[in-house]
Amino acid sequence: MDxxxxxxxxxxxxxxxxxxxxxxxxxxxxxxxxxxxxxxERLHAALGPTQPWIRLSRPALLGLLRPLGISDIRTDPxxxxxxxxxxxxxxxxxxxxGVRRHAQWLPDEVW
Length: 111
What we know:
Layout: E1 4-11, E2 19-21, E3 23-25, E4 33-36, H1 40-47, E5 53-57, H2 58-65, E6 73-75, E7 106-107
Parallel strand pairs: 4-6
Antiparallel strand pairs: 1-2, 1-5, 3-4, 3-7
């Protein structure tokens, strides 16, 4: 059985009846990709502590994305935006001081 991933979603409203999986672009003008995380802490470090999510397997997520023309999923991407992630994503300890983090993807604001 495939491992269930943490997949960020946009909900219709707080407590809304439906959710849509979030997508992103690896860079300006590039094709959209799906997003998935191996842990809730990684998702919240990348997208913030209030980001809603659902659990899906990789095949299920691909099944939702294929009708949109998306065939690639980025797992555990790092997001660099107005606020830096508050949780260190390195398993071997904190990142050394002065290490610059680079955006691996850009949010896709066209929903």
